[in-house]
RNA sequence: GCCCCCAUCGUCUAGCGGCCCAGGACGUGGCCCUCUCAAGGCCAAAACAGGGGUUCGAGUCCCCUUGGGGGCACCA
């Protein structure tokens, strides 16, 4: 039960693009572990690549976490005892640590130019060798190296990977991983621009920030032995390593690509968190969906964030890759929409009506919600079901007013009879209107669908709607009769 | 090419040597309910990749094969 000790866990994205589902899941697992153990959830921005930096990416990341409700305890915008939390603001720290490794004989300055490295790689490829650094600068005299640096020569600092032996690392989900050191490369730790690579930056920060568990996708697994060696060279303790697998495209063949992302968009889905809200997905649904791609629970898999915290166990994550399945997203989204209290759902769908240019009466909205709740897969589904409630007039298609197997004239006759029944009521409610209307159906020897269908199209303007009598009660007797009268006229003109 | 990881229904998964002729969920098909569309209820089809071991006993442990995924940057 050692992992019930309060964990310090960090979500460490790089601001190089949009926040996608994969990052969101990693952040979620980080969050769950931290909350489950009464620990700390930290956001750290790994912005050491100036070339790939994307303006606004950090904001999208923060906005995404906020939307999902994955609130962090320490981070670049809120500070904390181990800051700064943006790597670009920690250059000196990495510089000193890189040189400490040089001093310890575990790293060395390297003056090879990108040009030489490119040629080297090219030649190795031609000889069908593994691309790797050939170690030209590995045995350079340190004093000489310092002189060249003092002369202003560009350099990087490389890790001096042991040439012999085997590195054993332990992943919580996969057990021991053995790697022969001779297949490992002398990786660059400090770039010529003075900023660290991931290998140095992440290891140094994880140590300094007292990170206990590192959760990252398995694309990092190949560099785990490197990281373990770096940590050992410093003489530090290792965190617990957890490498969940990556998400595969819906076909199960390979990682999601730009093209797959575009395909998803065409179907009304997205792999980008920033799109999800506009598409009508709610955080509860998205969270539940991504949580269970890589984590299995025996049953009762509809869970809120709090319920997930209660049931989370880092050891139950699965090591195998998971294909994205948008049909399941629909399912989880709809399930959580159904769970929302009326007031809450009303508040969440209101913006969709407003954006459609409709005027929303809050009291009426509250009465509509129970009628459409179980019909919504995404929040924006509220429009096709209920937009007509907020319109002054509806525009039924004449042909849709004609009941199945009946003529326009017959349909008009039925509508007139219905008008008589409804207009005779003191008030139009489900209780007052439904029994006499059913009696009418009986008397006419027709099916409920035929008679109610005419009314539905007349009153709502559409063939699919929330339950008819409940809807009419909300619309009100006066307007119902008005619309019915108009429908009768339309039918008579056919 | 080299290195690493993974392997239960179409998909996400439960299973941590006997409780499994393998359970749940999504999706699919059927039925019920029904004023449309949903929701809900019931039922059905659907999997331990293959081959060797270990063991009284293997989906569960080991090895090989096959298949899939990932990585081989002064990117993360």
What does this structure look like?
Helix 7 (224-234) links the parallel strand 8 (213-215) and strand 9. This protein has 21 helices and 11 strands. Among the domains are: 90-242, 3-Layer(aba) Sandwich (Rossmann fold), CATH 3.40.50; 342-390, Orthogonal Bundle (Helicase, Ruva Protein, domain 3); 398-493, Arc Repressor Mutant, subunit A (Orthogonal Bundle), CATH 1.10.10. With 494 residues, the chain is mostly helical. The chain has a 3-stranded antiparallel beta sheet with strand order 3-4-7. A two-stranded parallel sheet has the order 1-2. The protein binds one RNA strand of 76 nucleotides through helix 4, strand 6, helix 6, strand 11 and helix 12.
Q: CATH H-level name of the domain at 90-242... which superfamily?
A: HUPs
Number of helices: 21
Poorly predicted tracts of residues: none
The radius of gyration over CA amounts to: 32 Å
Report the CATH architecture of the domain at 90-242.
3-Layer(aba) Sandwich
Largest sheet: 3 strands, antiparallel
Proportion of helical residues: 40-55%
The strand line-up of the biggest sheet is 3-4-7
In oligomeric terms, what are we looking at?
Answer: single chain
Distance between the termini: 77 Å
Please give the CATH class of the domain at 90-242. Answer: Alpha Beta
What does the average pLDDT come to? 95
CATH fold name of the domain at 90-242: Rossmann fold
Structural class: mainly alpha
């Amino acid at each position: 039960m050692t992992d019930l000790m309060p964990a310090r866990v960090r979500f460490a994205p790089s601001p190089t693009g949009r926040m996608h589902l994969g990052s969101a899941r990693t952040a979620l697992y980080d969050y769950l572990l931290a909350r489950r153990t009464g620990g700390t959830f930290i956001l750290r921005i790994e912005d050491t690549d100036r070339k790939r930096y994307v303006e606004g990416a950090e904001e999208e990341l923060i906005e995404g976490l906020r939307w999902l409700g994955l609130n962090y305890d320490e981070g670049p915008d809120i500070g904390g005892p181990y800051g700064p939390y943006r790597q670009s603001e920690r250059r000196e720290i990495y510089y000193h640590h890189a040189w400490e490794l040089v001093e310890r004989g575990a790293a060395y300055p390297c003056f090879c130019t990108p040009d030489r490295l490119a040629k080297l790689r090219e030649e190795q490829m031609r000889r069908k060798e593994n691309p790797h650094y050939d170690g030209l600068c590995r045995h350079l005299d340190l004093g000489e190296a310092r002189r060249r640096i003092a002369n202003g020569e560009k350099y990087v600092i490389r890790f001096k990977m042991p040439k012999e032996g085997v590195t054993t690392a332990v992943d919580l989900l996969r057990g021991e991983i053995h790697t022969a050191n001779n297949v490992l490369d002398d990786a660059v730790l400090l770039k010529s621009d003075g900023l660290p690579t991931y290998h140095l930056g992440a290891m140094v920060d994880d140590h300094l920030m007292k990170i206990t568990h590192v959760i990252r996708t398995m694309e990092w697994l190949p560099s785990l032995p490197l990281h373990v060696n770096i940590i050992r060279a410093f003489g530090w303790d290792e965190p617990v390593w957890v490498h969940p697998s990556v998400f595969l495209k819906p076909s199960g063949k390979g990682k999601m690509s730009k093209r797959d992302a575009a395909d998803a968009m065409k179907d009304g889905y997205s792999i980008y968190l920033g799109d999800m809200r506009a598409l009508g997905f709610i955080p509860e649904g998205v969270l539940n969906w991504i949580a269970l791609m890589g984590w299995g629970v025996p049953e009762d898999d509809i869970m809120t964030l709090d319920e997930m915290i209660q049931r989370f166990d880092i050891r139950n994550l699965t090591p195998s890759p998971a294909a994205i399945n948008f049909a399941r997203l629909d399912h989880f989204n709809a399930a959580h929409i159904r769970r929302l209290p009326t007031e809450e759902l009303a508040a969440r769908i209101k913006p969709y009506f407003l954006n459609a240019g409709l005027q929303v009466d809050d009291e009426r909205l509250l009465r509509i919600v129970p009628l459409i709740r179980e019909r919504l897969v995404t929040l924006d589904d509220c429009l096709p079901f209920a937009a007509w409630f907020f319109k002054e007039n509806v525009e039924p298609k004449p042909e849709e007013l004609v009941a199945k197997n009946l003529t326009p004239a017959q349909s008009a006759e039925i509508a007139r009879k219905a008008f008589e029944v409804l207009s005779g009521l003191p008030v139009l409610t489900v209780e007052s209107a439904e029994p006499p209307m059913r009696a009418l159906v009986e008397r006419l020897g027709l099916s409920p669908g035929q008679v109610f269908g005419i009314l539905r199209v007349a009153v709502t303007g559409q063939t699919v709607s929330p339950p008819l009598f409940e809807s009419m009660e909300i619309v009100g007797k006066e307007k119902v009769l008005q619309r019915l009268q108009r429908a009768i006229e339309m039918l008579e003109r056919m």
